[in-house]
Amino acid sequence: MFVVVGFLIVIGAVIGGYLMEHGNLSLLWQPAELVIIFGAAFGGFIVGSPMKVIIAVKNGLLRMFSSKVYGKKDYIDALVLMSEIFFKIRKEGLVSIESDLDEPEKSPIFKKYTSFLKNHHAVAFLTDTLRTLTITDIEAHELANLLEYEIEAHYEEALIPSKSIANVADGLPGLGIVAAVMGIVLTMGKISEPPEVLGHSVGAALVGTFLGVLMCYGFVGPVARNLENIASEDREFLTVIKAALLAFVNTPSPQVALEFARRVVPKDLRPTFLDLEATIKKAKK
After folding, report:
1. Which of 45, 125, 147, 191 has the smallest set of CB atoms within 10 Å of its CB?
2. pTM of the entire structure?
């Protein structure tokens, strides 16, 4: 929603300022310039991107427009879910959660937290780590390194859409110049025409530069930064899970583990100690 609002503000500010100077909007409508700039940009993107990158960009854009960012409830659900798992482990042992780990979508515990269950990477991150604990005697410091490597690998992979879109944005001003130069070439073919015709033709050519710069800094560049922020939010969410798991391994106390994780939640989304405790008590009932 905010992405669309931002786009509307950019369009409103640019067009509004143009109209304040009594500009003619019809002069900005140059379909040929659009075809040159966006066609070349899309073609360059296809050339420089293997299929997995194209799919990642598509999924990233869909997520940007259709998904909400992490909210306080998402973090609370993750913490309460882990509290149930930790209490079950402390009471019945690691073996007791094997069925939950094998089929999380059928687990009585996981099914209560649908928002977390839809976060496939977070589910895999949590279940794979717990499964590792059930079948190995991995040391705490080794587990910490393992989780950190996985988080960083996921973060780098999640940055692929952002980097790809950023590359397209970087090329747009240059492609705008290409469109402008082609317009000037056409203008030179009209050198014998009256000045008003030449002026219209030069203005149309300069629209290419205008569009290339505007799309770079007003639209495509901000989209790349938005996708980068989404990747960072994914990393923050996984870091909270990591903190809980490592704390539980070091001191098998669910309360201590959850407090470690709660302190890692971003400040603006962090539930208070009392709020989390009340939610956990309610879940137990």
Report:
1. 191
2. 0.87
